[in-house]
């Protein structure tokens, strides 16, 4: 006569799993990670005892990091939640099944070593660990169960890795810009030309909407006012600027030329491709053009669109634009830069960006860049 199955246990592909509805608790569903039936029964029994103690005596229940991560993703409202979800997906195979009290530098070290072996930058790993730290802090200080018990007694101290491997920005000189831009697809070329003349972030360029344009009749021009905070539109959700403050975008003659060429191409977005918003500039077209232009690809320097913001800032400095004006144009606000401008102040900002308008303008400053040689070892081939 066969042995009767234990309620709440079932076997799938040779491994025992728990799937049991518990009164006053809910559904308990997880893998026992064993093919041994008796061991699986013991695991189930221990979990049932722990849940019973929690219900009767108010003992802090045991929760996995995966449960905490799920709570974080479903309850957190932030502009970078999608990126956080990707980071947690990378972390899950390493710490997802661990109890949250067992997540600390010791148990995270295997993940850190794995990412370093993959060649991932320490800044990226630090950003991922910062999400872990945030979840553990919430579990210790904010999240409470029905018995007013915190999810975690104390959040551990997490040390962020620093391998001194960060890439440096690569501002372009005029020759490099001309060579690189000529190799970009037409739609990316327009976006890059606008970005290098305005200093905007990549997503601000991708999201730029015609309704954000504001006419300034006194100066016979227009500016763009980009919302600092999240805005919901019929076609998507603009997450807002990084510093949550409205951004005033003034245009020099090159940026104005780009804008005029884009008029009529799309009813909503300034820059569009095949009738939809361009989601990012740093795509295959960008990467291929960067490589063909002979720009550095060995990891010593950054290769993405953010280099154009650095180029914009360096050119302003080379043109002798004062620090306060540069900060306003680069949208580096720290409480001492206003987002409300008179026509006189706008004119001052426009005059500043006109100094770096390229082409035949004799006002464009000569920019001499002293760059270090790559510190990366050469790969020798036979």
Please give a handful of descriptors for the protein shown.
disordered C terminus; hpI Integrase, Chain A; alpha+beta; three-stranded antiparallel beta sheet; elongated; 3 domains; 13 helices; single chain; 382 residues; 11% strand
Write the layout of secondary structure elements.
Blueprint (H helix, E strand, L loop, with lengths): L8 E4 L2 E8 L3 E6 L5 H21 L7 H11 L5 H15 L9 H13 L4 H20 L32 H10 L2 H13 L3 H6 L5 E4 L4 E6 L4 E3 L2 E3 L8 E3 L3 H10 L9 E2 L2 E2 L6 H9 L13 H13 L4 H7 L13 H12 L28
Helix pairs in contact: 2-3, 6-10, 7-9, 7-11, 12-13
Q: Determine the mean pLDDT.
A: 86
Oligomer state equals single chain
| Element-by-element helix/strand order | EEEHHHHHHHHEEEEEHEEHHHH
| Helix percent band | 40-55%
Number of strands: 10
CATH C-level class of the largest domain: Mainly Alpha
Radius of gyration: 27 Å
Strand content: 5-15%
> Which fold does the CATH topology of the largest domain refer to?
hpI Integrase, Chain A
Strand order of the largest sheet: 1-2-3
Q: Helical region count?
A: 13
The coarse silhouette is elongated
The biggest sheet, with number of strands, parallel, antiparallel or mixed sense and barrel status, is:
3 strands, antiparallel
CATH superfamily of the largest domain: Intergrase catalytic core
Q: Which secondary-structure class do the elements indicate?
A: alpha+beta
Question: Low-confidence spans: pLDDT under 50, at least 5 residues?
Answer: 360-364, 374-382
So, CATH architecture of the largest domain? Orthogonal Bundle
| The number of domains | 3
Question: Gap between N and C termini, in Å?
Answer: 69 Å
């Amino acid at each position: 006569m066969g042995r009767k199955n234990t309620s709440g246990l079932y076997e799938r592909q040779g491994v025992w799993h728990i799937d049991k509805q518990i009164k006053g608790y809910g559904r308990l569903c997880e893998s026992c990670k064993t093919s041994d039936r008796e061991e699986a029964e013991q695991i189930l029994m221990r979990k049932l005892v722990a849940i019973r103690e929690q219900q009767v005596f108010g003992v802090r229940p045991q929760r996995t990091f995966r449960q905490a991560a799920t709570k974080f993703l479903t309850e957190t409202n932030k502009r970078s939640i999608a990126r956080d979800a990707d980071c947690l997906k990378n972390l899950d195979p390493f710490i997802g099944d661990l109890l949250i009290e067992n997540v600390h530098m010791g148990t995270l070290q295997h993940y850190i070593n794995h990412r370093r072996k993959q060649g991932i930058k320490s800044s990226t790993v630090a950003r991922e660990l910062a999400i872990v730290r945030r979840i553990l802090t919430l579990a210790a200080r904010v999240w409470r169960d029905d018995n007013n018990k915190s999810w975690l007694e104390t959040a551990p101290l997490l040390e962020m890795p620093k391998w001194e491997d960060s890439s440096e920005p690569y501002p372009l000189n005029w020759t490099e810009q001309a060579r690189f831009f000529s190799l970009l697809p037409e739609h990316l070329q327009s976006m890059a030309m606008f970005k290098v003349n305005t200093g905007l972030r990549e997503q601000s360029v991708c999201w730029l909407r015609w309704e954000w344009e504001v006419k300034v009749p006194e100066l016979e021009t227009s500016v763009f006012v980009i919302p600092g905070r999240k805005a919901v539109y019929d076609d998507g959700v603009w997450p807002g600027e990084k510093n949550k403050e409205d951004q005033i975008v003034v245009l020099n003659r090159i940026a104005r030329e780009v804008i005029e060429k884009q008029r009529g191409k799309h009813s909503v977005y300034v820059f569009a491709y095949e009738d939809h918003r361009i989601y990012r500039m740093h795509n295959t077209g960008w990467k291929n053009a960067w490589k063909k232009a002979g720009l550095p690809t060995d990891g010593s320097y950054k290769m993405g669109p953010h280099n154009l913001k650095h180029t914009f800032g360096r050119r302003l400095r080379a043109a002798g634009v004062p620090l306060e004006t540069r900060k306003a144009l680069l949208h580096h606000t720290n409480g001492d830069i206003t987002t409300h401008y008179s026509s006189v102040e706008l004119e001052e900002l426009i005059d500043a960006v006109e100094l770096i308008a390229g082409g035949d303008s004799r006002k464009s400053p000569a920019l001499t860049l002293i760059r270090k040689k790559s510190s990366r070892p050469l790969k020798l081939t036979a």
